[in-house]
Specification:
single chain; 251 residues; alpha/beta; TIM Barrel; 6-stranded parallel sheet; 3-stranded antiparallel sheet; 6 helices; 11 strands; 16% strand; globular; binds flavin mononucleotide
């Protein structure tokens, strides 16, 4: 839950249990500088700490929850304990500026980088375009394994010293693919009605919360609209977010 006191950019803002000193938030932006294994590098330590001075919140770029979910071949990930070592150096460096830092957890689904993806997966077997190719429709056990990846990523986010998590549910990546009636044609519990299309995100948030507890900040990034007839629009997204917010209120 976000509590506002005024609309001025230089006034504090509370997100979950954290007070930001102002509303200048650095948006997640991929650096394309991860190692082949998806580790953050010295570049990330320098890049984020240099930009952290004086801002209210730093959000680290898209960070993959599984090796098959990187959006770009040289994206960073958080899919093993070793990934947390360099990420801890990033959070330590940003904390020297007295600035909180969140990680953006992501999975590309049918838009995962073909160069580093063994098995392209999606809610339904509909290709994004020819360059990515046709994804396999996720089985229920594969969906459960992905939710477990998010749970482990949340545990590692805390180990790495992040002050909060942003769940990437935007830009046509995996969670957006589940939410949208354009890319989700499933007729089981994870598709069909709005509630069904939301289930993957709801289950993912519950798995993350099982690691973080209710007072740790967990935010969700959405795209608001699919810009296509029959796709998601701001009204439907607002209904989705209202329902998620009711689930996620701090204790
Ligand atoms: C090089 C580059 C990398 C980006 N990487 C990410 C990312 O990792 N995650 C994300 O949600 N958005 C990413 N974005 C989108 C930005 O966060 C931002 O929304 C976009 O630049 C538009 O800025 P605006 O929202 O201030 O108009 C990226 C944008 C650029 C230009």
């Amino acid at each position: 839950m976000i509590t506002t006191t005024s609309l001025n950019l230089d006034t504090p803002l509370t997100i979950g249990g954290i007070e930001l000193r102002n509303r200048f938030i650095m948006a997640p932006m991929q650096q394309y500088k991860g190692s082949p294994e998806g580790y953050a590098t010295e570049h990330h330590v320098q890049h984020y700490s240099r930009r952290a001075k004086g801002i209210g919140l730093m959000i680290v770029e898209s960070t993959a929850v599984s090796d098959n979910g990187r959006l770009w071949p040289n994206d960073i990930g958080i899919y093993s304990d070793r990934h947390t070592e360099m990420l801890k150096r990033v959070t330590d460096a940003v904390h020297t500026r007295d600035t909180p830092i969140f990680v953006q957890l992501s999975h590309g689904g049918r838009k995962s980088a073909p160069e580093v993806t063994d098995r392209l997966i999606a809610p339904s077997a509909i290709p994004y375009d020819e360059s990515y190719g046709k994804p396999a429709e996720l089985s229920i056990s594969e969906i459960e394994a992905l939710i477990e990846d998010y749970r482990m990523a949340a545990r590692r986010s805390i180990m790495a010293g992040f002050d909060g998590i942003e769940v990437h549910a935007a830009h046509g990546f995996l969670i957006h693919q589940f939410l949208s009636p354009i890319s989700n044609l499933r007729n089981d519990a994870y598709g069909g009605t709005r509630l069904g299309r939301m289930k993957f995100l709801k289950d993912t948030l519950a798995a993350i919360r099982s690691e973080t507890g209710r007072n740790y900040p967990v935010i969700v990034r959405i795209s608001s609209t699919d810009y296509i007839d029959g796709g998601l629009n701001p009204q439907e997204h607002a209904m989705i977010l209202k329902s998620l917010e009711a689930d996620g209120r701090p204790a």
